[in-house]
Amino acid sequence: MSPMDSLSSEISAAAARLVVEEGLEYGPAKRRAIKLLGLPLRSALPGNDELEDAVTEYIEVFCADTQPHELRCLREHAVFWMQRMAAFRPHLGGAVWRGTATRLSDIYLQLFCDDPKSAEIELVNLNVRYVPRTVPGFQGRDVDALSVHSFCAGLGEEIGVHLIIYDFDDLRGALRPDPKGRSPRGDLRAVQSLLNVASK
User: Fold this and answer.
1) Contact at 8 Å (CB) between 93 and 184?
2) Residue 177 backbone dihedrals phi, psi, to 5 degrees
3) Across-strand partners of 143?
4) CATH assignment of 67-199?
5) What are the beta bridge partners of residue 161?
6) 41 contact partners, CB below 8 Å, separation of at least 6
7) 3-state DSSP call for residue 151?
8) What distance in Å separates the CA atoms of residue 86 and residue 188, rounded to the nearest whole number?
9) 3-class DSSP state for residue 128?
10) Where in the chain are the domains?
11) C-alpha dihedral, 160 to 99 to 69 to 149, nearest 10°
12) Residue 163 · residue 119 · CB < 8 Å
């Protein structure tokens, strides 16, 4: 292994611990790992695929007895929200979709709306408190997001649910496979299939 590869692996391992133990997203985890390791701020960061592999390995070593149950609870809660927001073609992304989530992970649902304000109106109609934010979208541009705190009965605590708003026309591009040939997000039927497979 070259020194560059070794350093990348070290950053990935440190970032993976932050993802699992503190619930950080990949970008902030990698940047925090750089600081914790005392490396220059402009150090080359590992790719998300490499970090995901490190997160999976960390979970297998340190969380194998708790993570599957926590993941199932989060996916079930995602289904609850996907059913509530079914009119907006919800798709689950992030760690809960990929299978690397723990109880510290938030749920990220991407909504594909004909009218960008319609999801916000629906939350008002449901009497759900939310915080509007702007976040980076999967196409590299900023998009609107509605963040709520939602009680997850399976975990017995509140978790973050983030509804990320896209135009309906963005849906086709959202379903393109990643470099490994996997879907980066799934609709309600796909998430329910994951739950059915896990229960067998």
Assistant:
1) yes
2) -65, 155
3) 135
4) 3.30.460
5) 107, 148
6) 34, 35
7) strand
8) 8
9) coil
10) 3-62, 67-199
11) 10
12) yes
Strands 91-93 and 142-152 come out as unpaired
- Structure tokens, 200: 């067998």
pLDDT digits (tens, 9 = 90+) for 6-55: 889 999 999 999 999 998 888 899 999 999 999 998 888 999 989 999 99
Nearest Cα residue to 84 out of 56, 119, 57, 39: 119
Angle, in degrees to the nearest 10, between helices 188-199 and 67-84:
150
Q: Are 54 and 12 in contact (CB under 8 A)?
A: yes
DSSP 169: G
Alpha carbon distance, N-terminus to C-terminus of the chain: 40
The answer to whether 31 and 11 have CB atoms below 8 angstroms apart is no
Opening angle at CA 16, ends 10 and 18, nearest 5: 110
> What pLDDT, in 10s, does the model give residues 63-99?
999 999 999 999 999 999 999 999 999 999 989 999 9
Cβ 112 vs Cβ 170: under 8 Å:
yes
